Amino acid sequence: MAVAAAFAQVAADAAGTVQAVDVLDAGSLLAAFGALGVAVVLFAETGLLVGFFLPGDSLLFTAGLLCAPGAGGAVHLALPQVLLAATAGTLAGSQTGYWLGRRGGRALLARSRARKLQEGAARAEEYLARYGHAKALVLARFVPIVRTVLNPLAGALRVPARTFTLWQITGGVVWTLGLTLAGYALGSSVPNVDRYLLPLVALVVAVSLTPLALEVLRARRRPATADPEEQHP
Question: 56-67 vs 197-231: helix axis angle to the nearest 10?
Fold first, then answer.
């Protein structure tokens, strides 16, 4: 009975911890799960369509900040562990998304009713058509939602596995190491940088959403620029 009660208490504590974590808050995720949380979140964001809302950019930057010697908060991470976890999570997730797309095809994307996900799929296909496989796979890493959808879409469109693997690794390494080391560099140069964590994360989120906002503005301007041509052939 005592053993059963102990297991029940552990399960209750674990459930309470999970409920207390805000999956949209990078700081909350890192405080609860550390480097392992980085790997899991990036795997879900880049490999599973349900992870399109997860905060990949802000998570990497925040993790880098919390690795710096100048970060004196309650949470402190080891830079080698974070870099390894981030790289492993994003590369494994992207490869998983690709193979899911190969097996499920476009039906995999069609099952989702999320408007943002469908818009992301349209942008991802546009990236592939405009930039080609290599450039699209690298650029998509820096665009929220697109980096989630492009991997299964590449599988559905039968992008050669060797080409996909080469360029998703290139883009994944540049994205994960770049953002993490940027956070680490800032944290190392600014004493007690954790005091400014919220505004810094907000800035990273704003910057990461800039390509998405530019795409939306450009899409809205197209009909306006197309109408005169239609009226005056």
Answer: 150
Q: How far is CA 213 from CA 76, 128, 201, in A?
A: 33, 19, 18
Q: Tokens at residue 112, please?
A: 């989702």
* pLDDT tens sequence across 154-190: 888 888 999 999 999 999 999 999 999 988 988 888 7
Does residue 61 surpass a pLDDT of 70? yes
Q: Which amino acid is at 170?
A: T
Q: Give the model confidence (pLDDT) of 5-25 as tens digits.
A: 432 343 344 334 444 566 556
Q: Coil, strand, or helix at residue 144?
A: coil
Which are the contacts of 116, defined by CB distance < 8 A and separation ≥ 6?
52, 145
Q: Cα dihedral sign for 40, 44, 50, 52?
A: positive
Between helix 26-47 and helix 79-104 the angle, nearest 10°, is 30
Distances (CA, A) of 140 to 9, 135, 146, 198: 44, 8, 6, 26
